[in-house]
Amino acid sequence: MNDFVYDIPVRVYFGRDQLKNLGPELKKYGTRVLMTYGGGSIKRMGLYDRVMKEMKDAGLEVYELNGIEPNPRIDSVRRGAQMCKDHKIDVLLAVGGGSTIDATKFMAAGACVDFDPWDFMDYSKQAPIERALPIVTILTLAATGSEMDSGGVISNPETKDKNGRLAPALLPKASFLDPTNTFTVSPYQTACGAADMLSHICEVYFNMNQDLFMLDCFMEGLMKTIVRYAPIAMKDPENYEARANLMWTSSWAINGFIDGGKRQAWSCHPMEHELSAIYDITHGLGLAILTPRWMEYCLDETTVSKYVQYGVNVFGIDPSLPAMDIARKAIAKTSEFLFDTLGLKRTLPEVGIDETHFAVMARKSVGGGTLPGFKPLQAHDVENIFKMCME
Amino acid sequence: MNDFVYDIPVRVYFGRDQLKNLGPELKKYGTRVLMTYGGGSIKRMGLYDRVMKEMKDAGLEVYELNGIEPNPRIDSVRRGAQMCKDHKIDVLLAVGGGSTIDATKFMAAGACVDFDPWDFMDYSKQAPIERALPIVTILTLAATGSEMDSGGVISNPETKDKNGRLAPALLPKASFLDPTNTFTVSPYQTACGAADMLSHICEVYFNMNQDLFMLDCFMEGLMKTIVRYAPIAMKDPENYEARANLMWTSSWAINGFIDGGKRQAWSCHPMEHELSAIYDITHGLGLAILTPRWMEYCLDETTVSKYVQYGVNVFGIDPSLPAMDIARKAIAKTSEFLFDTLGLKRTLPEVGIDETHFAVMARKSVGGGTLPGFKPLQAHDVENIFKMCME
């Protein structure tokens, strides 16, 4: 069991009636706000007007940057960082899902340096992130957990890279989580968000190191919550209980708490980032396709006990069955949840991906070496997993 | 489902090898430290010397206050607040369990005011706690959760009061949780700590309002962790896995996370505070005696569903049984855990308490009105529960 430091000083305003706290929260950091968002959905749902009113009432000076892409691109980050410099911005307000929040984090960091923000993301440079302007978020999609973590992922279409980066300075100061702001999320996006959250947990949960039992219980609780409420939110999009459970789960699936002292690399995420870097598919969809195949690929006598724990505690599989049977049933239950219950596409060809780039993507996903995850994966292992996703 | 604000900016250094961070952490707040502790146990276990060495190496000027009582008294608080003023203390370091940390919190607040610190605790005065000196803790007992929450309880032997108070300013800046610092905790104190934690969770979990399912899963995970590891820690006191699970559970059982938007009063704690105010028994022991009787008293057709959830998810009771049977079995399992597995005394007479003060204690525990908890309790209800503890 490794030592760890727990340090998540994000203030979360959770619930329906919290926007009244937005003005006072932003004013802690100054008066000049850059508000960032994606397409027009926040205008259609009325959130834009409510947020603007709160900020105007608080006497804040607001600049806007919109059009942040679903897989956010470095050009948006460059644009935002420049706006922060031009307008002497004091605080950034990201209104949206993980893409908007991720991009905003690197704008806030980019505003504090003189070099190109891609240098933060370029794995060969890893430019230090020492400071960032303060960030506040209003979440509109339960998925990536960016609202309560210190990381983000940015795409560079020129280099076909999609790279992630973590730094404490990127942690939002406060996040507003109002489940009603996710009522208009489509069933498909709700499903992709659920798959993303489930994957965040699996990346940590599937681990053969000695861990805190308490944290395993928490992870099982988070997974049970997703399995229970994602289908309800898809069928009944204004079900507050379902949206609230999914929203708070998205934050805790990746804010670092469940990690404890685990220091193992993630597996499905680096694989998926290569898929969406080239094919621009939805992150959660890519993860859904990969996850059950990765589970199948990693199952053997040395890892089976973890699948048994997962199958019994998350899906209620009969613990008296032989271990391998429980493990296979657990994987089948995972596929059933992702592809039948959530209705996500099951194979790569169904989302327009063929074998053309498998070898290159596999090499990139392991960083030219080995992914030291649940089971260590080399490029040929990842290529095998990609191939398992063909049918 | 109520709105809530999540805000727990406590940095936790968890594990065996974290004391190297103590000096740098304290120096963030200044150079003059008041170190507080209870009896001699931290000297016997060598912790005192290690802590002193870290502080000396960091060039800190250290003052000491020891002798803080197990149910900490207002006189210790007064003494500490005065020392802070006399020596212009910058930061307080509490080394101990919940009693030491609780007392230190009110010393830190008392150092910032000109009035008697009992005015913070006196329910008729509720003097505002606007500021407190920064507090860092080194935990040596997994029980009260004071290391990660903003509250504390102080006794006043003159008035026979034992009062609690919460204030954000009392939240520790950082806490050092090294499970090896609990290796010397006796089986009896380990058991009392486990009962205290279990009670913290029951006070929130037993609730008929609509809650976040996700948080119920977390609470069940915390309770399963206590049930699993407390007996191991009692039999094998240097079992790191058991001590680590209990330690991190103690913090999360009461830091506010599991509350979500619940705003219901606690029940067993106010009852127990009256017992230990008069008889000075160990808090966790009093809670252990009260909890199963309180469960029994509150069980009826309107509350049975919560007991079913508890029995099935924490103790694995067969869900196909009739609801009332599951509920009764769940209460029996709770008693069995507390009195047989943990070996705690089962009745009030066994700890030297008779009916003499029941009526007075019952009236005080409901504050002259009703405890609006799981089931609203009036003075006569509390008196009935006390009487149930006689055999």
What does this structure look like?
The structure is a homodimer of 391-residue chains. The first copy, chain A, is an alpha/beta fold and 391 residues long. Chain A has two domains: 11-181, Rossmann fold, CATH 3.40.50.1970; 185-388, Up-down Bundle (Dehydroquinate synthase-like, alpha domain). Chain A has helices at 22-27, 41-44, 47-57, 74-86, 98-110, 118-121, 187-205, 213-235, 240-252, 268-279, 283-298, 304-315, 323-341, 358-365, 379-388; strands spanning 4-6, 11-14, 32-36, 61-65, 91-96, 135-139, 151-156, 161-166, 174-177, 370-371, 377-378. In chain A, the strands form three sheets. Chain A has a six-stranded parallel β-sheet, sandwiched between helices. A two-stranded antiparallel ribbon of chain A has the order 7-8. In chain A, strands 10-11 form a two-stranded antiparallel sheet. In chain A, strand 7 and strand 8 (161-166) form a beta hairpin. The model of chain A has no long low-confidence stretch (mean pLDDT 96). Strand 2 of chain A pairs antiparallel with strand 1 (4-6) of chain B, so a sheet runs across the interface.
Features:
homodimer; 391 residues; Rossmann fold; 2 domains; six-stranded parallel β-sheet; 12% strand; globular
Break the fold down into its secondary structure elements and pairings:
The structure is a homodimer of 391-residue chains.
Chain A: E1 4-6, E2 11-14, H1 22-27, E3 32-36, H2 41-44, H3 47-57, E4 61-65, H4 74-86, E5 91-96, H5 98-110, H6 118-121, E6 135-139, E7 151-156, E8 161-166, E9 174-177, H7 187-205, H8 213-235, H9 240-252, H10 268-279, H11 283-298, H12 304-315, H13 323-341, H14 358-365, E10 370-371, E11 377-378, H15 379-388
Parallel strand pairs in A: 2-9, 3-4, 3-5, 5-6, 6-9
Antiparallel strand pairs in A: 7-8, 10-11
Helix pairs in contact in A: 4-5, 7-8, 7-11, 8-9, 8-12, 10-11, 10-14, 11-13, 11-15, 12-13, 14-15
